[in-house]
Amino acid sequence: MSAGLAVLSSGFRGFARYLSGVLGADAYAKYLEHHRASGHSGPPLTEREFWRDRTDRQDANPQGRCC
Amino acid sequence: MATAPENRSGSSGREGAVDTDPALPPTAVDEAVRESEDSKWTPGKIALWAAISLLGGMAWFMLAIVRGETVNAIWFVFASVCTYLIGYRFYSKVIERFITKPDDRRATPAEYKADGKDYVRTDRNVLFGHHFAAIAGAGPLVGPVIAAQMGYLPGTIWIIVGVVLAGAVQDYLVMFFSMRRGGRSLGQMAREELGVIGGTAALVATLLIMVIIVAILALVVVNALGESPWGVFSVGMTIPIALFMGVYLRYLRPGKVMEVSIIGFVLLMAAIIGGGIVAETPWGADIFTLDKVTIAWGLIVYGFIAAILPVWLLLAPRDYLSTFMKIGVIVMLALAIIVVRPEINVPAFSEFASRENGPVFPGALFPFLFVTIACGALSGFHALISSGTTPKLIEKERQTRFIGYGGMLMESFVAIMALVAAISIDRGLYFAMNAPAALTGGSVETAATWVNSLGLAGVNITPELLAETARNVGEQSVVSRTGGAPTLAVGLAHIMQQFIGGTAMMSFWYHFAIMFEALFILTAVDAGTRVARFMLQDSIGNFVPKFKEASWRPGAWLCTAIMVGAWGAVLLMGVTDPLGGINTLFPLFGIANQLLAAIALSVCLAIVAKRGTFKYLWIVALPLAFAAVVTITASYQKIFSPTPAVGYFANNAAFSKALAEGKTEFGTAKTVAAMEAVVRNTAIQGWLSVIFVVLSIIVIATAVLATVKAFRNRGTGTEKDNEDPALPSRVFAPAGLIPTAAERELMAEWEKVPANLRFERAGHH
After folding, report:
1. pLDDT tens track for B325-346
2. Looking at the complex, does the CB of residue B391 fall below 8 Å from at least one CB of chain A?
3. Sign of the C-alpha dihedral, residues B666, B669, B672, B678?
4. Per the CB < 8 Å rule, is A18 touching B126?
5. Which helix (H) or strand (E) holds B715?
C-alpha cells in the first residue's frame, strides 16, 4: 500500500517537474547551474534580478505566438 | 547574448570534421552500432509495426470505405495516431538520413553559446512540450471546424497526410537549419540564402501575413463574444487576472511561476463560473451585452495598450496561463473523445464537396479545403517559431527529429480532435451556426427553415432544437455564430457533458472552450503586434536610424499604432462586412499562412540544394510544389474567378454595376451603404491577394534560381555554407522519447564522468 503511494507521489512529482519545465518555471535554477558550471567570477543575479532581466529582454526582442 | 569561444576546432560544417575530447566518452552513438540497431528487425518489433499498420489500415477502411449510417469517433484517433507513428518511424528517418544528416559530435547552439538565459540545454521531453505549446494555438481548432462543411473525409485526409508529408517536414527542416545557424530567424535565413530581392520580398510578405493573421484571429474572438454577456465578462476578467499575476511575479514572489499559474487558473475558473452568474443579472446582461463593432473597437484599443505595456505586466503571465490551459484542455479533450467515443453522422463527403457555393466558405474543394485547414496540416507560422527560440534550447542535433517533426504531429492530432468535436454535433445545427446571418436570417425560425431548404441528407432541424442548444450553453442564440470557435465550443461541451457533469454542466464547458480560445488568440494578438512593430521599426530604421532604437518610445508607439491600425482596419472590415466577414476573410488567412509555408520551404529547398543533396530534393520540393500550387490557384481564383461568391473582383464588379444602375439593395446587402462597403472590402481583399501572391512568387522564384545555381556548381565547392563552424560537443543525451539500448549504454558511461569534466568552461563573462 505504502509502496503504491510512493510510486504515486513520485509520479506526481515527476509530472509537476515536467510541467514546470514546460512552463519555464525552472529557468532560474538552470541559470544558477550554468553560472556554477561555467566558472564565472562575479556573483550570479538574484532571483528577482534574473526574472526582471528575463522579461525585460523579451520586451527588447519580441517573439511571435502561433495562431 | 554570449559570443562563441574563439578556439574553434574543425573548419567546415561537414561530417567527420569535429574532433571530440578523447578524455570523455563518445558524444554520439557509434554510426555502425546505430545502423545495425535500426536495421535489425526482431520478431517483437515486426509484430508491433505490423499491428500498428493493421490497426491504422482498418481505421482508414472504416473512415473512407465503409458507408454506414454513422462512424465512431475512435476510428479518427486510430487512423491518425497509427499514420503518425508510421510517418515518424519511417518517413522522418528518411529525411534525417538523406537530408538533415545530424551529427551528435557537433555542439548545438545551446552548448557552444550557453549563457544560462536564451541558450540553455533543455531536456528533450520538456522541450517537446515547450515547443508544442509554442506552436499550438487557435488555428488548428478553428480551420477544421470550418472545413467540416465538405464532410469529414477530405479534411481528415489532408490533416493526416498533409502533416506527414508537408507540415512536419517544414517544421523539422526549418528547426534543424536554424539550429545549425545558431538559432537564426527565418527572415535572416531567407536573406542569406536567397539574396536581397528574395529576402526583402520574404520580409514584406511576412509582415503583411502577420497583419492578416492577427486580424482574422481577432475576428474569431469578436464573433465568439458578440451578444454574449457571459463570454465578454469571463474573457474580460482575464485582463485583471493577468495584471495581478504580473505584479505578483514581479514584486511579491519573483520566480514562483508554478504557484502563480495555479492561482491564475483557479481565478480563471472562478471568472467562468462568475460570468454565468453575472450574465443572469439584469445589470450584468445590460453592461456586458455588446455588439460586434463595439467589441472590435475594444479589441483594437486593447491590442494597442497591450503591445506597449511591458512584457512582465500582461504578456508573460498570459503566456503562463495559456500554456497551462493548452496542455490541460488538449489532454482533457483527448481523454473525453476516447472515453465517450461519440458516433458521427456527418457524411464522408457532404453535398458541398462537389460544389463551390458552400455557405460556410465559398469555393471548390480544390484548392479551398487545403487553405481553410492550414494549421494542423501545414502552417507557415510555425517556421517563425521553429527558427529562433526552440533551436537555442536543443541539447543534441538528433533530437530535432523528435521535437520538430514529432511536435507538429501532435498539433495535427489536436486538429483531428477539433474536427471530431465539430462533427459530433447535429449537422443542421452546424450549418445554422456557421452560415452568415445574411443567409440564416438570424432568428431560430428563419435559420431552421433555411437549413431545411438546403436539401441535406438526413437534416431536419427544428427551431426548438436551436433554442434549446442556446439555452443549454448559456447563450441568447447560436444562430450564425460564425468563426469556428462557438461550433467547437458546442461540440466540446456536447462531448464533455457526457463525460463529466451532464447537461447542467454544458454551459460551463461551452464558456470554458470560448475562454481558452480567446486566451490563445489574445496572446497571439499581443505578441503578433509586438513582432510586427519590431519588423516595421527595423525597416524604417534603414532610412531613419533613430527608429532602430527599441527603447525610443515615440518610435515604438508610432509603429505599434500603425500595425494596430492595419489589422484593426481589416478586423472592422470583417465585422461590418454585409457578406458575413469570416467566410470571405478566412480563405485569405489560410492563403497567407500557407504562402508563408511556401516561403519557409523555399528557403529549405535552397539550403538543401546548397548542401549538395539533389537526389532527395523531392522531399522538400513535393510539399513546396503542393503549397505553391494550392495557394497560387486559390489566389488566382480569388482574383480572377468570374463567380462573385469566389472572386473578389467579380463580386466587386457586380456590386459596382448594381450601384451604377441605381439599385438600393443587391444580394445580401440591403442598403446603399452596405453595397458601398462590399465594393470597398472586396477591392481591399482582392489587392491584398495580389500583393501576397506576387511576393511569394518572387520568393519561390529566387529559391528555384538558387537551387539551379547550386546544381550547376555541384562538386565545385563554390556554394557558400552559412552554417556556424562545427564545434565539438561535450555532452550526450538520447535522441528520442525512449532511449535505445546503445544510448542507455552510453548514458551509463557518461554517468561515471566527474561533473567538473563534463561541461566546457565558457571563456566569456
Report:
1. 888 888 888 988 999 999 998 9
2. no
3. negative
4. yes
5. none
